[in-house]
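Exercise: predict the fold of this chain.
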Amino acid sequence: MGAIALVVPTGYSLGPALLLLASPVLLALRPGFDLNRQDKAIIAILLAYFVVAASRALVDGQGSSGLDKSSRFLLAVPVLFWLVAYPPRLSVMWSGIAIGAIASGSWAVWQKLIEGVARAGGYTHVIQYGDLNMLFGVLCLAGLGWAFSQRNAKYWVPLLALGALMGVMGSLMSGSRGGWIGFPFVLWVLYRGYARYFARRWLVGLSVLVVAIGVTVYAVPQLGVQSRVNAAFSNVQQYLEEGNTRTSLGARFAMWHAAVELIPEKPIFGWGDQGYEQARDRLIAEGRAAPIIKNWGHVHNEYLDAWLKRGVFGLLALLALYLVPMRLFGKRLSSDDLALKSIAIAGILLPVTYMDFGLSQVFLAHNSGVMVYPFWLVLLWGLLRHREAHLASGMQPRER
């Protein structure tokens, strides 16, 4: 799930595929677990997203091909049953995330600084690659609480700290700015989870360190961050002053403008993918939208795209997909058990990062996006349920 996700072709699909293949074994083993209301809430949001997206695709005349992306949310449900019954060891999950972040971040640095590519992209699109590197990096930060509580903390803490560093570095090497915008919110979640374990002087010192690293990264032109940030300001200025839509952000502004024009015409059920393309072309022909937006089949914003194509039901299903897990994992944020707390923080950061990514990209329109979110969600939830069960029974799962 973690170690090979970004360093082999479609590696993010291999772990979920193995879990899915394992799940039918439950029919023979019959482990006899009971689903609680919160398990059912996770299942409900996965099914709701699938039903809304699949229904709109069928109405739109897309046939079975229109079910491809949304089916991942349906297939995550049997995997959830499997993980609730047979969760992996926490040491396996955290080490997998750290190894994956280190490997991918190192590869991104090699691509950028040695091979001289403009933006590191791995085996997928540069935006997806950079944002998923950021996700794995911040998950490593979440796991530090678990690492500090282990007998071999002197090994685990550096491993996860290096994973966090290289995950963020992979994002920087990709030049995917969308993943950088939400980093302050990531830090806020980490602060809420771990603040009471650090003295005030440590928090101040860490804050200064984060700012210093940010300034240093920006100040080194070879890393490409400075040029990407400056380009963003230039894009905005050109759009506001000249109406230039032939830049990265200018094109996005044009797409968002078209979405805002079209949503009020079909706010309840949406246009569908094919309906949107026809309506988009009409706006262009009428001179109400920039011709450049014809180059994309979505509007580079997860929320606008969901409402535009699947109506208000699509938007609500998307918001539930993010907000319900945040709420459920957030209930465990005050736990005194560092292992449970680390899972809860990771469970919050997964939707937090996806909500950030979705501001400038339709992340769930890509295979990597729909393979990572639902399957990592059920993995983290299965581990959380397992940890809570052991704590309730008075048993402490042994970790190495």
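Check your answer against the key: The two ends are 20 Å apart (CA to CA).
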